[in-house]
């Protein structure tokens, strides 16, 4: 079924995969453009003489621009959804990509990534609302399809480093403008369908949908606030650890094992590629076994592998980082769905809050880890950060959902 023919709501026809795969494809392109920034670090480290702390500030600027704006965009779009914001966000990212390719200094790189961050902030809440309409009764699977696109885009960073930026240098970022242009063309096909759903069925806030969260928890404001605080702590633990691995582990293994810049990208790619698989299967498992169990498995379950990773021989790094990536990412989309079910009718704000926090916490983590690495050394800091997934056991404090109680 093509996008143009997907003219009924998922509630009537079931899950609308044409729309889900289209918006997931745009998510892939959006997050690929964000991945360009970290993929450039081995080049910018030398050409602009960046320190670990400066690289952390670049990640911080990109992520905080996105994270601070996502809940704001989500809040206002819950009140007045705006389909036109989808292509507009990609337009801002296009400007950012063009600017990154020619920026001659650290400060102009910062300015360029602000545009990329704003584009992402605008896209994510509206994209999640499109997923909500197209999901039917399979919200876990639908959110996983959507998040798989984003995680796949992020996983391309090491490959872009190897095949684009090490050979071409900073000007290779201009290829990101083609991603933005392609995303805009796809969104121009999705927007009419999205407008039709809004015209026929109104905002998701008006639809009384059953959720998997315990009904008493939904009615009890204190329980909801408590559960959201626990979710925020879980997002903090996962995002700080992910930021340390995705941003700095390449330099850690390069220095510890004497790898080239190209070879140092391989474990990062394995980590992120496994995360794509984990995101997809995590959504399906959550639909069957419950959100809470999968969130617990994803963060706490990755802790043994995180603790051993800094101490392994090179041969063991590859399988362990792959397994850890699969487990850690398996709860990413599930956390978003859990938050949406805690806050029924506030789809944009819930997804913007959790996804935005993931970016924001990761940004703060990148700065703190980078600054600490400049002072105490990268090996020591990454070793200490490996305890963060142990906070995943806080998941046990979350309210139960129906599947868990069953």
Automatic annotation (TrEMBL):
It is a multi-pass membrane protein. GO terms for cellular component: plasma membrane. Pfam families: MFS_1 (PF07690). GO terms for molecular function: transmembrane transporter activity. It is found in: Cell membrane. PROSITE patterns: MFS (PS50850), SUGAR_TRANSPORT_1 (PS00216). Its main location: membrane. Transmembrane segments: none annotated. Keywords: Membrane, Transmembrane, Transmembrane helix, Transport. PANTHER family: FOSMIDOMYCIN RESISTANCE PROTEIN (PTHR43129:SF1). This is MFS transporter.
